[in-house]
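[agent] plan:
  1. take the single chain provided in the ticket
  2. run structure prediction with default settings
  3. attach C-alpha coordinates to the ticket
  4. add a short note for the reviewer (M.T.)
[agent] executing step 1
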Amino acid sequence: MNAYYTVARLGEAEYIEKRSRFIGHACSVGSEREAWEFLTEMKMLYNDATHNVYAFVLGEAMETQKASDDCEPSYSAGRPTLDAIKGFGVSDTIVVTTRYFGGSCLGTGGLLRAYQNTANLALEQAGKIYKVPAARYAISFDYACIQPIEHLFNSSKWQIVDRTFLEKVTFTVLVPLAEQECFKGRLNELSQREAHCFLLDNESFFLRE
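[agent] step 2 finished; step 3 output follows
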Protein backbone atom coordinates (compact mmCIF):
# COMPACT_ATOMS: atom_id res chain seq x y z
CA MET A 1 0.00 0.00 0.00
CA ASN A 2 1.13 3.53 -0.75
CA ALA A 3 0.16 6.94 0.61
CA TYR A 4 -2.34 8.93 -1.41
CA TYR A 5 -4.36 12.12 -1.08
CA THR A 6 -7.91 12.52 0.19
CA VAL A 7 -9.78 15.69 1.11
CA ALA A 8 -8.76 17.18 4.45
CA ARG A 9 -12.17 18.42 5.64
CA LEU A 10 -15.75 18.97 4.51
CA GLY A 11 -15.75 21.55 1.74
CA GLU A 12 -18.79 23.59 0.71
CA ALA A 13 -19.16 26.06 -2.16
CA GLU A 14 -21.91 27.82 -4.09
CA TYR A 15 -22.05 28.75 -7.76
CA ILE A 16 -24.75 30.77 -9.58
CA GLU A 17 -25.41 30.49 -13.31
CA LYS A 18 -28.45 32.22 -14.91
CA ARG A 19 -30.27 32.17 -11.57
CA SER A 20 -29.70 28.43 -11.13
CA ARG A 21 -28.08 27.82 -7.76
CA PHE A 22 -25.48 25.07 -7.43
CA ILE A 23 -24.33 24.00 -3.96
CA GLY A 24 -21.36 21.63 -3.81
CA HIS A 25 -20.14 19.51 -0.91
CA ALA A 26 -16.86 17.55 -0.94
CA CYS A 27 -16.30 14.96 1.79
CA SER A 28 -13.80 12.23 2.65
CA VAL A 29 -15.31 8.72 2.73
CA GLY A 30 -13.68 5.38 3.50
CA SER A 31 -16.07 3.03 1.69
CA GLU A 32 -19.02 2.85 -0.69
CA ARG A 33 -21.31 2.56 2.33
CA GLU A 34 -20.01 5.87 3.70
CA ALA A 35 -20.42 7.46 0.26
CA TRP A 36 -24.06 6.35 0.02
CA GLU A 37 -24.70 7.55 3.57
CA PHE A 38 -23.30 11.00 2.76
CA LEU A 39 -25.39 11.17 -0.43
CA THR A 40 -28.51 10.24 1.55
CA GLU A 41 -27.69 12.95 4.09
CA MET A 42 -27.39 15.57 1.35
CA LYS A 43 -30.64 14.44 -0.32
CA MET A 44 -32.46 14.76 3.00
CA LEU A 45 -30.92 18.17 3.68
CA TYR A 46 -31.85 19.45 0.20
CA ASN A 47 -35.03 17.46 -0.37
CA ASP A 48 -36.66 20.37 -2.22
CA ALA A 49 -33.84 20.67 -4.79
CA THR A 50 -34.24 19.99 -8.51
CA HIS A 51 -31.21 17.65 -8.67
CA ASN A 52 -28.62 16.10 -6.35
CA VAL A 53 -25.76 15.04 -8.62
CA TYR A 54 -22.89 12.99 -7.21
CA ALA A 55 -19.58 11.36 -8.03
CA PHE A 56 -17.13 9.49 -5.83
CA VAL A 57 -13.71 7.88 -6.13
CA LEU A 58 -12.34 5.21 -3.78
CA GLY A 59 -9.09 3.32 -3.38
CA GLU A 60 -5.36 3.87 -3.60
CA ALA A 61 -5.43 3.53 -7.41
CA MET A 62 -8.85 5.24 -7.76
CA GLU A 63 -10.16 1.80 -8.71
CA THR A 64 -13.78 2.54 -7.74
CA GLN A 65 -15.41 5.42 -9.62
CA LYS A 66 -19.13 6.13 -9.70
CA ALA A 67 -21.21 9.08 -10.85
CA SER A 68 -24.82 10.03 -11.52
CA ASP A 69 -26.42 12.85 -13.53
CA ASP A 70 -29.62 12.56 -11.41
CA CYS A 71 -31.87 13.22 -14.43
CA GLU A 72 -29.74 16.00 -15.91
CA PRO A 73 -28.77 15.38 -19.59
CA SER A 74 -26.33 12.47 -19.96
CA TYR A 75 -22.67 13.29 -19.17
CA SER A 76 -23.53 16.91 -18.27
CA ALA A 77 -23.29 16.59 -14.47
CA GLY A 78 -21.91 13.37 -12.96
CA ARG A 79 -19.03 13.04 -15.41
CA PRO A 80 -17.67 16.60 -14.93
CA THR A 81 -17.99 16.13 -11.16
CA LEU A 82 -15.99 12.91 -11.39
CA ASP A 83 -13.40 14.64 -13.60
CA ALA A 84 -13.04 17.39 -10.98
CA ILE A 85 -12.26 14.85 -8.24
CA LYS A 86 -9.70 13.06 -10.38
CA GLY A 87 -8.19 16.34 -11.53
CA PHE A 88 -7.79 17.45 -7.91
CA GLY A 89 -5.78 14.26 -7.32
CA VAL A 90 -7.76 12.82 -4.43
CA SER A 91 -9.39 9.48 -3.70
CA ASP A 92 -11.76 8.26 -0.97
CA THR A 93 -13.76 11.37 -1.82
CA ILE A 94 -17.36 12.15 -2.75
CA VAL A 95 -18.74 15.38 -4.21
CA VAL A 96 -22.48 16.04 -4.17
CA THR A 97 -23.77 19.05 -6.07
CA THR A 98 -27.30 20.24 -5.42
CA ARG A 99 -29.09 22.31 -8.06
CA TYR A 100 -32.02 24.65 -7.64
CA PHE A 101 -33.38 25.44 -11.12
CA GLY A 102 -33.41 29.16 -11.85
CA GLY A 103 -35.86 29.22 -14.75
CA SER A 104 -33.39 29.29 -17.65
CA CYS A 105 -32.03 26.24 -19.50
CA LEU A 106 -28.24 26.14 -19.49
CA GLY A 107 -27.74 23.59 -22.25
CA THR A 108 -25.40 20.64 -21.98
CA GLY A 109 -22.26 22.77 -22.23
CA GLY A 110 -23.49 25.23 -19.62
CA LEU A 111 -24.44 22.46 -17.24
CA LEU A 112 -21.08 20.76 -17.69
CA ARG A 113 -19.22 23.96 -16.83
CA ALA A 114 -21.49 24.75 -13.87
CA TYR A 115 -21.16 21.30 -12.28
CA GLN A 116 -17.41 21.14 -12.82
CA ASN A 117 -16.89 24.67 -11.48
CA THR A 118 -18.99 23.91 -8.40
CA ALA A 119 -17.11 20.68 -7.72
CA ASN A 120 -13.77 22.44 -8.16
CA LEU A 121 -14.77 25.16 -5.68
CA ALA A 122 -15.96 22.62 -3.09
CA LEU A 123 -12.74 20.62 -3.45
CA GLU A 124 -10.62 23.74 -3.06
CA GLN A 125 -12.48 24.54 0.16
CA ALA A 126 -11.90 20.98 1.40
CA GLY A 127 -8.17 20.98 0.69
CA LYS A 128 -6.24 17.74 0.61
CA ILE A 129 -4.14 15.66 2.96
CA TYR A 130 -2.07 12.47 2.77
CA LYS A 131 -3.77 9.22 3.76
CA VAL A 132 -0.88 7.10 5.01
CA PRO A 133 -1.03 3.26 5.26
CA ALA A 134 -0.13 2.39 8.84
CA ALA A 135 0.26 -0.38 11.39
CA ARG A 136 -1.75 -0.19 14.60
CA TYR A 137 0.16 -1.11 17.76
CA ALA A 138 -0.63 -1.35 21.46
CA ILE A 139 2.32 -0.35 23.63
CA SER A 140 2.35 -0.96 27.39
CA PHE A 141 4.82 0.72 29.75
CA ASP A 142 5.38 2.14 33.23
CA TYR A 143 4.13 5.60 34.18
CA ALA A 144 7.71 6.90 34.33
CA CYS A 145 7.92 6.57 30.53
CA ILE A 146 4.86 8.68 29.67
CA GLN A 147 6.66 11.96 29.01
CA PRO A 148 9.47 10.65 26.77
CA ILE A 149 7.10 8.40 24.82
CA GLU A 150 4.60 11.22 24.24
CA HIS A 151 7.49 13.43 23.12
CA LEU A 152 8.56 10.70 20.69
CA PHE A 153 5.15 10.73 19.04
CA ASN A 154 4.85 14.52 19.01
CA SER A 155 8.24 14.89 17.33
CA SER A 156 7.81 12.06 14.82
CA LYS A 157 4.20 12.77 13.74
CA TRP A 158 3.29 9.18 14.54
CA GLN A 159 -0.14 9.14 16.13
CA ILE A 160 -1.53 8.15 19.53
CA VAL A 161 -5.20 7.28 19.03
CA ASP A 162 -6.10 5.98 22.50
CA ARG A 163 -4.71 6.05 26.05
CA THR A 164 -5.55 3.69 28.94
CA PHE A 165 -4.28 4.24 32.48
CA LEU A 166 -4.42 1.18 34.72
CA GLU A 167 -1.58 -0.59 36.53
CA LYS A 168 0.46 0.25 33.45
CA VAL A 169 -0.10 2.79 30.70
CA THR A 170 -1.28 1.47 27.34
CA PHE A 171 -1.24 3.58 24.19
CA THR A 172 -2.85 2.52 20.93
CA VAL A 173 -0.76 4.07 18.18
CA LEU A 174 -0.52 4.33 14.40
CA VAL A 175 2.85 4.13 12.65
CA PRO A 176 3.46 4.26 8.87
CA LEU A 177 4.24 0.81 7.49
CA ALA A 178 7.63 1.96 6.23
CA GLU A 179 8.64 3.36 9.65
CA GLN A 180 7.88 0.37 11.89
CA GLU A 181 11.49 -0.67 12.53
CA CYS A 182 12.46 2.91 13.37
CA PHE A 183 9.49 3.13 15.73
CA LYS A 184 10.42 -0.09 17.56
CA GLY A 185 14.06 0.95 17.87
CA ARG A 186 13.25 4.38 19.30
CA LEU A 187 10.69 2.90 21.68
CA ASN A 188 13.20 0.37 23.01
CA GLU A 189 15.82 3.09 23.40
CA LEU A 190 13.55 5.47 25.31
CA SER A 191 12.08 2.82 27.61
CA GLN A 192 15.32 0.88 28.03
CA ARG A 193 13.42 -2.08 26.55
CA GLU A 194 10.80 -1.93 29.31
CA ALA A 195 7.92 -1.06 26.93
CA HIS A 196 6.01 -3.97 25.42
CA CYS A 197 4.80 -3.57 21.86
CA PHE A 198 1.99 -5.61 20.24
CA LEU A 199 0.95 -5.43 16.58
CA LEU A 200 -2.86 -5.14 16.33
CA ASP A 201 -3.17 -4.82 12.54
CA ASN A 202 -1.25 -3.52 9.53
CA GLU A 203 -4.20 -2.33 7.44
CA SER A 204 -4.95 1.01 9.11
CA PHE A 205 -4.51 4.57 7.86
CA PHE A 206 -3.88 7.97 9.32
CA LEU A 207 -3.87 11.49 7.89
CA ARG A 208 -0.70 13.51 7.61
CA GLU A 209 -0.10 17.02 6.25
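[agent] step 4 note for reviewer: The radius of gyration is 22 Å.
[agent] ticket updated
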